[in-house]
Amino acid sequence: MDAAAQKQAAAQEQSSPQQRLDDLYRDPYPLYARARRTEGLTFVPELDAWLVARDADVREVLLRPDDFSSAQALRPDVMPAPAAFGVLARGFPKRPAVVSTDGPAHRRHRAPLNRGLSASRVGALLPYAAARAEALLDGFAADGRTELMASYARRLPGAVIGRLIGFDPADVPAAVHGGHRAEQLLFRPLSEAEQVAAAEDVVALQHLLDRYARARRAEPRDDLCSAMVAALAPGDAPLTDDQRAELVSNLQNFLIAGHLTTTALIGTTLYHLLRDDAAQWKLLCARPELIPGAVEEAARFDTAVQGFRRTTTRPVNLAGTELPAGATVFVAYGSANRDEARHADPDVFDITRPPSRHIAFGHGAHGCPGSQLARGQLRLTLELFSRRLPGLRLAEGEVVMRPTLIHRSPQELPLAW
After folding, report:
1. What per-residue confidence (pLDDT) applies to 366?
2. Structural domain count, the chain
3. Percentage helix, strand, coil, to 5, in the chain?
4. Residue 272 and residue 349 in contact, taking contact as beta carbons nearer than 8 Å
């Protein structure tokens, strides 16, 4: 080990467990590369899981749901304090949702999403998304600079997913805020007072979703909320407490997945296009026919959802490693998408790359049902920004990635033109 590596190792040993976890989350790719080169699986203490890093192994796990359960797919990084749990008790008890179920239960939860996110429905929604994107850009185009995450990337997907679910536009900001606070409460270290405040926002979101579910039971509409009510609570009787809790859990899960992942994808895409003197951005502006390929390359290169946990249901052998029943594995989509065995020069961001079979949106039964909606919003964003702001560039200052593997994106993205 050279002197620089020794110094880095010593610094890591002296840092706190939370700092080591944050450092890993902000840049997991060196760990992924080591794990792909190592025979078998690598146990990662910070994740408390076996890391599944190679493309072939990731695909194998995702195609074996009977052996690798999704029940703990979104196990929290942080256990809220008792005071926060006291606040959460005023909301709705957690129920299984599409991301955390297997077999018939998963198919039951997923069916209304498949119908609500069909190609025809996504196609009908994208003109609204395009108009909303134009309006958001109009709000800062004359300023010469903006912080993109706050002014655009967090606002467009929230508006689109709110319209899909059937929210009144006035309720969208509160719903989006509640989704962000749920992620903070379960995946970021907060003081007890901050946890209590976040829990209050989560409970407010849950009661908002419950009001919509009960309203759609009384008067169904042509929206996803009505479809979920009809699928998960068939009939026309008033919703039971259990039905209300299940609907709130599934609506909350869909809301968060539907806007936070697309927010992350928009932010990372613009960041990588504008790095290195914006060479890739200039190429995109000169050759707009590359936009569809740029969407796929961005999703592959810096995957918004880096992976999910799975739990073995019986003793299994994976990649030569014997795992007992109840073992936790972290299925790293982000690592599979940088696997040299699948992608040439995988650590290079290249929008001219020939199409490749990445798994940024999952694989198998749990493949993302909203992938085409996410792709559509990113595509229209690139079309809009390349047409109206071809001189776009990164503003001064370092871009820092959020310390998470769930919705990987810049904390802030200052841009100028």
Report:
1. 93
2. 1
3. 60, 10, 35
4. yes
Residue 108 lies in a domain: yes
313, with CB counted inside 10 A (0-12, 13-18, 19+), is: middle
Q: CA torsion, points 383, 384, 390, 394, in degrees to nearest 10?
A: -100
Residue 259 in contact with residue 370, Cβ under 8 Å? no
Q: What is the pLDDT of residues 69-90, one digit of tens each?
A: 999 998 888 889 999 999 999 9
**CA-based nearest residue to 302, from 259, 245, 258, 346:** 346
Contact (Cβ atoms closer than 8 angstroms) between residue 20 and residue 31? no
Coil, strand or helix: which one is 25?
helix
- 88-140 pLDDT per residue, tens: 999 999 999 999 999 999 999 999 999 999 999 999 999 999 999 999 999 99
Amino acid in the structure at residue 321: T
The 10s digit of each residue's pLDDT in 347-378 is 999 999 998 899 999 999 999 999 999 999 99
Q: Which residues pair with 308 in a beta bridge?
A: 331
**Quick one: residue 65, left, alpha or beta (phi over 0 = left, psi -120 to 50 = alpha)?**
alpha
264 neighbors 299 (Cβ within 8 angstroms): no
Q: In the block, which residue shows the tokens 């998408």?
A: 337
Helices and strands (H, E) in the chain, number of each type? 16, 10
Is the model's pLDDT at 6 over the cut of 50? Answer: no
Distances (CA, A) of 276 to 36, 105, 110, 272, 281: 27, 47, 41, 8, 10
Query: Residue 119 belongs to a domain with what CATH number?
Result: 1.10.630.10
Please report, in angstroms and rounded to a whole number, the separation of the first and last CA atoms in the chain: 44
> What is the enclosing helix (H) or strand (E) of 176?
helix 172-187
pLDDT at residue 367, rounded to an integer? 94
Contact criterion met (CB below 8 Å) for 172 and 159: yes
**Cβ(409)–Cβ(401) under 8 Å?**
yes
Structure confidence at residue 271 (pLDDT): 98
* DSSP assigned state of 416: E
Is residue 1 one of the residues assigned to a domain? no
Domain that holds residue 221: 16-416
Alpha helix ranges (H) inside 38-154 = 55-62, 82-88, 103-116, 119-138, 148
pTM score:
0.93
Contact 411, 401 (CB under 8 A): yes
